[in-house]
Design goal:
- The chain is built from 17 helices and 20 strands.
- It is globular and about 65 Å long.
- The strands form 3 sheets. Strands 7-8-6-9-10-11-12-13-14 form a 9-stranded mixed beta sheet.
- By secondary structure, the protein is α/β, with parallel strands linked by helices.
């Protein structure tokens, strides 16, 4: 473990005041740093979120970033939403200013063991399941990272005995220096965030930094079935694999519909595939990754089996919302890229009405053509990416320009018949019309529950 740095009297600049930025500024201020926090938004736009910063003595520069502040500081912590190659950060870097992500700072103060999980899709489900298994097995756990609670906010909770399970994004990993998980997981790599990383290679390299500081005492877990991740297998940590399709020498795999864990010549049966409560082949992969991580962390097979069977899933990830007049509604608002939407479609046999659209991230929606033709009967398009999506999927499925999610749900409800599935799996970011994907998912669920209440009222009124 690294010796925590002394923040006392250091000049720290926090760029971006979303949840992570606020938590970072408060953390540094509490440890004696002279903290300045900056955001392009005004005080009115930020609202009550900045009140604790004022109380903690943090200097605020709002409505834009001052170049002088970025150049006249000891340490810059940009929020994950700030690109590492932003011109102002490049200028600061050229002046020799240290620039870290929030997880790099947090990692210097954490105690206990750390499990880090990254990948294009499945991170939140795998992270939540891993923590659920370990907690159910009796380990003191902390759930943190890109899943909702900044890692920096968990420093006070950790101890020498705790296991912190953290979801890690490419945005967080691209600005690490010494950050080191004891167990790392790289789930998969598919095109995403190309508006930020520019190329798939740049995106993959940012994620693969999760292995960069691991040693021979650590473990790395990768997807043997994913050609995007296999080239990134590291040399220092012990490498384990997970696979739905092939036997692995070390790690988790499937044989005769049973999940196995193989390690140092031994083979253990963990659970039957039919006992996995989550829909979709992609969730089998998530379970395999979690099995490998938790077994390496010390959970016994019986505890793993019991915990997997009791796992109810994660909000906004292929989440069942309601069944109304024989029509099932699913919220997969976390499907913010094309590959996640492909996996969502794969979970259903057919007759799907799918809501697509939002803010484009440089995606190729032509990849949706074949599965839409096979599985979907209607695509309802919303948001600013609607034109691009329509151009790229035209001819594969009937298309309705709904523009808003409210109109999409209303249109879908009138177009369905019993046995159909209405699926929110947008393949886009949410920031054109919503605060984030959680907000989008909550709005969708409330609209569905309104339909549910209307249907119940109509039924009871007719008696």
């Amino acid at each position: 473990m690294l010796v925590p740095i002394d923040l006392g009297n250091k000049r720290v600049l926090v760029v971006g005041l979303a949840r992570t930025g606020v938590a970072t500024a408060l953390f540094c201020a509490a440890r004696g740093a002279r903290v300045t926090a900056t955001d392009t938004r005004t005080a009115d736009e930020l609202g009550d979120s900045i009140a604790p910063l004022r109380e903690a003595g943090v200097s605020l520069e709002l409505g834009g970033h001052r170049e002088e502040s970025l150049l006249e500081t000891d340490l810059i912590i940009p929020s994950p939403g700030v690109p590492a190659d932003a011109p102002l950060l490049q200028a600061a870097r050229a002046k020799g200013v240290t620039i870290w992500s929030e997880i790099e700072l947090a990692g210097r103060f954490l105690k206990g063991r750390l499990i880090g999980i990254t990948g294009s899709n499945g991170k939140t489900t795998t992270t939540s399941l891993t923590e659920h298994i370990l907690s159910s097995a009796g380990f003191p756990t902390i759930l943190a990272g890109n899943i909702g609670t900044p890692l920096i906010s968990c420093v006070e909770q950790c101890s020498d005995k705790s296991i912190t399970v953290t979801e890690l994004s490419s945005f967080q990993l691209e600005l690490i220096e010494t950050f080191r998980p004891n167990i790392s997981v790289f789930l998969n790599l598919t095109p995403d965030h190309l508006d930020r990383h520019h190329t798939l290679e740049g995106y993959g390299a940012a994620k693969a930094r999760i292995f960069e500081n691991q040693t021979e005492a650590d473990s790395a877990i990768l997807n043997a079935d994913d050609p995007g991740t296999t080239p990134y297998a590291p040399t220092k940590p012990q490498v384990y694999w997970f696979s739905r399709k092939q036997r692995v020498a070390q790690g988790a795999c499937v044989k005769d519909n049973v999940v196995l864990f193989r390690h140092e010549g031994t083979e253990e049966s963990i659970l039957k595939l039919e006992d996995i409560p989550l829909a979709g082949a992609h969730n089998v992969e998530n379970v395999l990754a979690a099995v490998a991580a938790t077994r390496l962390a010390g959970a016994d097979p019986t505890a793993i089996e019991k915990a997997v069977r009791s796992f109810t899933g994660v909000e906004h990830r292929l989440e069942f919302v309601a069944e109304i007049a024989g029509v099932r509604y699913y919220n997969d608002s976390k499907a913010t890229n094309v590959d996640a939407t492909l996996k969502a479609l794969d979970a259903f046999p057919g007759r799907v009405l799918i809501i697509l659209g939002g803010k484009d991230k440089g995606s190729d929606y032509t990849l949706l053509r074949a599965p839409l033709q096979e599985k979907a009967i209607l695509a309802l398009l919303i948001g600013v990416a609607a034109d691009k999506i329509e151009n790229q999927i035209a001819g594969s499925v009937a298309i309705e320009r709904a523009e808003t999610i409210e109109r999409a749900v209303e249109t879908a409800a009138h177009a369905t018949r019993p046995g159909d599935v209405v699926l929110l799996a947008p393949a886009c970011a949410s920031f054109d019309q919503f605060q984030n994907y959680e907000h989008r998912g909550r709005v969708f669920k409330e609209l569905v529950h309104q339909l549910e209440r209307q249907a119940a009222s109509t039924t009871s009124g007719g008696r």
